[in-house]
Design a protein that fits this description.
CATH class: Alpha Beta
Helix content: 25-40%
Distance between the termini: 27 Å
Strand content: 5-15%
CATH topology: DHBP synthase
Number of domains: 1
Largest sheet: 6 strands, mixed
CATH architecture: Alpha-Beta Complex
């Protein structure tokens, strides 16, 4: 995945899960993160939280935290429910806009992907990334959900 997306090798990979229970198996959910998750997930919100012990280093990028989401796309949640947590980046290369359709995803991935799932037009929008590893959650990257909507300070 790092090579296909031209993603820096020590940058953590985000993970998609089916629901909040699955999220709690991977990360340590504090009260603020749980409240945000219950209000905005499934949806375009990625929570960065302390990882539980035993997760592969490639997911963590050498750190101790993990970005986790419950995707808005029903097909993505169904895959996570059936197969377990999934790395969850778009088909776009690092810095490019996320593809919205299967045609766009094929073009963005080039020859790096062997299989595609056509689940219709992507729903949800660009994820807002929130660091909830410390005592106060803060927005790292504002996306579809604004910092004001989250009740947090922006980047």
């Amino acid at each position: 995945m790092y090579e296909a997306k031209k993603r820096p090798g020590r940058r953590p990979l985000p993970v998609a899960v089916a629901d909040l229970d699955d999220m709690g198996r991977l990360v340590k959910l504090n009260d603020a993160a749980r409240a945000l998750a219950q209000r905005f997930l499934p949806g375009p919100l990625l929570l960065v939280l302390p990882a539980k012990p035993g997760l592969p280093d490639v997911l963590l990028g050498g750190g101790g935290s993990l970005g986790v989401t419950v995707p808005a796309q029903p097909a993505a949640r169904a895959l996570a429910r059936s197969f377990g947590p999934l790395t969850a980046t778009t088909a776009a290369r690092e810095g490019d806009a996320a593809p919205q359709t299967l045609r766009d995803a094929r073009a963005a991935a080039g020859g790096a992907a062997r299989a595609f799932l056509d689940a219709g037009v992507l729903v949800g929008g660009r994820p807002t990334v929130v660091d909830a590893t410390g005592p106060r959650a803060k927005v790292i990257r504002e996306g579809t959900i604004s910092a004001a909507e989250l009740g947090l300070h922006g980047p």
